[in-house]
Design brief:
heterodimer; A: alpha+beta; Alpha-Beta Plaits; 5 helices; B: about 400 residues; alpha/beta; FAD/NAD(P)-binding domain; Enolase-like, domain 1; 11 helices; about 25% helix; globular
Chain lengths: ~150, ~400
């Protein structure tokens, strides 16, 4: 399946992916109205290593996802390879945050969990972090499956 | 064609079904379900009281789960006996079922210590099942004074669930602090303070000596008048069946990392088991839902002829009350050192021994904590990562570029 991968050699560390993610999942049509003056809770996060190298981290859609196995609300599942949260079932216990080895499941600012769903469950249908990256440092492609 | 039998219908059983079906799509599977409910999210019973969820959304799996997996469920039946030699399970109604492999996923039961006059209390409840919860819900009114015996995870979650639906809540516990199984004194004090701010009263360090109807007298002389009593002192693993069959049992049913008991073709998973905690290198009863699923799945795969292990279990808890959360994992072995950060609204305590992170307690700020959990679970040598940086904030940046490239540029 297609996943999000990063090319850290191209990452500018501009954090635009975080804003595009927050906007894409806001359900709003105007980016300014969606984000201005608000603290954002993106599902992708830019990190900087000790040498100043930057790159974005988002859900790896693991082949054997520990978040799905650990969810105490039956809210996380894998559908066609994409790990999704059923927000009607999530009660905000944050067990998924406790177990994700990559720190890719985060709290959404209202107390429940959220994670990258590859923009398959919002109105966009294709990852907006990838689309909006000004330097092609985030790609959405097939890289061979172990499964 | 084989016949797999699962005793119990909780999350370990669901994992077992999914494990079996990942290997064997054909053979018969029978689930013996004492509770008259399809598998549900047991810890969410407090969220039900809180009206954060409802019975429909509490289902752990879809409505068609059993039919999709071609599983026969015997509702309202329990197992009375396992005959390891004959490879049969006898039900409470005397019926006998033959198995090729059986998984005991019978969970745990509330433990109620003897307390004088308990039989004089009219409205008393455990808090383990949907049926307990519905009965408790029937008994409360907006004026009810509720006394909860037990300030552990179950008792406090019950308190949170009841908070907006009753008049007052008092929680008592023999331990001198709340959540004594997962928090140390300092962390427990912060959590207790938060609970008190939300109107929960505590009587700690003492136990109930005597009940006279709606009146409780504690060992330390304190007295409480109440309308409804919740007994959440603790739970005990349901080990009877395997013990009677001749299997090795301590505080829980002893299982190895394939979830096999000491008896051939008898597996066990979930809250009824005792298994290896790699963070303390000790065998423990770790009654935790994520582990129950992973054990169940492991048992199922192995029962059906696959070969898998669950060999990195650790205790871990994510629990919050009234919007204030805590994450704990692993253990604090003797001689460990502690890294600490704290202010009035948060605490971070990381425990290190022999170049390994062995455990942590985090209160108030839960961000990317799974990176810490993975350090414990993988027993990562801290000398191989930038632990000084990790202490401040969990991040892949401190894990080295090889690790990061594997994770972010490949399929994991």
């Amino acid at each position: 399946m297609k996943r999000i991968y990063v090319k850290e050699e191209w990452c500018l560390g501009c954090h635009l992916c975080e804003y595009n993610c927050a906007f894409a999942n806001s359900g709003m049509t105007d980016m300014v109205k969606a984000l201005r003056g608000k603290e954002i809770y993106p599902r992708i996060q830019v990190e900087t290593d000790e040498n100043g190298v930057t790159y974005a981290v988002s859900c790896r859609h693991c082949t054997d996802p520990i978040c799905v196995k650990s969810c105490i609300a039956g809210a996380l599942s894998k559908k066609d390879g994409v790990i999704e949260i059923d927000h009607s079932k999530c009660v905000g216990c944050l067990t998924c945050v406790l177990v994700c080895p990559y720190g890719a499941v985060v709290e959404d600012g209202t107390g429940v969990a959220q994670k990258c769903e590859l923009c398959m469950t919002n109105s966009h249908g294709t990852p907006q972090c990838v689309k909006g990256c000004p330097n092609g440092a985030i790609v959405f492609e097939e890289r061979g499956e172990a499964e | 064609m084989k016949h797999y039998v699962i005793i119990g219908n909780g999350v370990a059983a669901a994992g077992c079904i999914e494990g079996i079906r990942s290997v064997d799509a054909e053979s018969a599977v029978t689930v013996i379900s004492a509770e008259n409910h399809p598998v549900y999210c047991r810890p969410l019973i407090s969220c039900y009281l809180e009206k954060k969820t409802d019975l429909e959304r509490m289902h752990y799996r879809s409505e068609s789960f059993y039919t999709d997996n071609n599983v026969k469920v015997l509702y309202g039946r329990s197992a009375a006996k396992i005959d390891a030699a004959a490879k049969t399970v006898t039900l409470d109604n005397g019926e006998t079922i033959a198995y090729d492999a059986v998984c005991n996923a019978s969970g745990s039961s509330p433990f109620v210590p003897p307390m004088a006059g308990l039989d004089t209390v009219e409205k008393k409840f455990s808090f383990m099942t949907i049926d307990d919860t519905l009965a408790l819900e029937q008994a409360i009114t907006p004026e009810s004074r509720v006394l909860i015996i037990g300030a552990g995870l179950i008792g406090l979650k019950c308190a949170e669930g009841l908070h907006d639906r009753v008049g007052s809540i008092t929680v008592c516990d023999l331990a001198p602090r709340v959540l004594s199984s997962i928090l140390d004194d300092t962390c427990a004090a912060m959590m207790q303070n938060h609970l008190e701010k939300n109107g929960i009263s505590f009587i700690l360090g003492t136990s109930a000596k005597e009940f006279q109807g709606g009146h409780a007298v504690m060992q330390n002389g304190a007295e409480v008048d109440f309308d409804v009593l919740v007994l959440a002192v603790g739970v005990r693993a349901n080990t009877q069946l395997v013990k009677a069959a001749g299997g090795e049992v301590n505080r829980g049913i002893v299982v190895n990392d394939k979830c096999q008991t000491s008896l051939k073709d008898i597996y066990a998973a979930g809250d009824c088991t005792e298994y290896h905690d790699i963070s303390s290198d000790m065998n423990k009863v770790m009654a935790l839902m994520p582990n129950a699923y992973m054990q169940g799945r492991t048992a199922g795969v192995n029962m059906a002829g696959g070969d898998t292990v669950f060999n990195n279990a650790i205790p871990m808890n994510s629990i919050g009350f009234f919007g204030f959360h805590c994450h704990t994992a692993g253990s604090q072995p003797e001689g460990c050192t502690m890294y600490e950060e704290a202010d009035e609204n948060h605490i971070k305590r990381l425990f290190v021994k022999d170049d390994r992170l062995t455990g942590f307690m985090l209160l108030g700020h839960m961000h990317r904590t799974g990176i810490y959990t993975a350090l414990i679970r993988n027993q990562t040598p801290l000398s191989s990562v930038d632990f000084a940086r990790l202490q401040i904030e969990p991040q892949l940046a401190a894990m080295g570029s090889d690790f990061r490239n594997k994770v972010l540029k490949g399929v994991v």
